[in-house]
Amino acid sequence: MRALRKTCIWPPVLLGAAVFLAGCGGDDFENEKRPPVPIELTGVIQDRGVTVSPDSEGAGPFVITISNQTDDAHTVTLEGTSIEETVGPIQPQDTGTIQKTLPTGKYEVRAGSDVAVEKEIPPAELDIGPDRASSNDELLLP
To answer: Do 103 and 127 contact (CB within 8 A), yes or no?
Structure first.
C-alpha cells in the first residue's frame, strides 16, 4: 500500500488572506469629488447664423455637436476665457464635435470658411455660469 501523503492547504490560504488584508489600507485615501456629468449641447450652422442650444449652463465638461446646414464647408471655433478649440472643416450636411471642460465665462461659437462669403455668419454666444454639482451621487455612469 502506498502511504498517503497529508498536505495542508492552510498556510497558503492564510498567506493569501494576509496579503489581501494588507492591501486594504488605512484611512489615508480621501474620496475625491467626481467631475460633473458632461452636458451635450447641439448646434447648427445656417446662413443666418450659428445657433447652440441650450446657450447657458453651469461650468464643467461639455460635448458640443454642430451640424452644418449650409452649402459650404466651415471650420467651427469655440473661443473665450483663455480657451480656443477648433474643429473642421465640417462639410455640408455633416457634423463636428467639440469636447471641452469650460470654466465660468462667456464664449463664442463661430463658423469660418475658406471661401469668400457675401456676409459673415453671426456667431452663437454661450454663457457658462458657476460650477455644476459633482456626479458623485449619479448612478449608471461609466
So the answer is: no
Q: Which CATH number does the domain 39-131 belong to among 3.40.30.10, 2.60.40.420, 2.130.10.10, 1.20.1090.10?
A: 2.60.40.420
What Å distances lie between residue 3 and 6, 49, 54, 110, CA to CA? 9, 91, 81, 86
Run of H or E residues at 14: helix 10-23
User: How far is the C-alpha of 57 from the C-alpha of 128, rounded, in Å?
Assistant: 5
* Model pLDDT for residues 73-119, shown as the tens digit of each residue: 889 989 887 888 898 789 999 999 999 988 888 999 888 876 655 66
- 4-63, pLDDT tens digit by residue? 555 556 566 666 666 665 555 555 556 677 778 888 999 999 888 899 988 888 888 899
Instruction: Give this prediction's pTM.
Output: 0.68
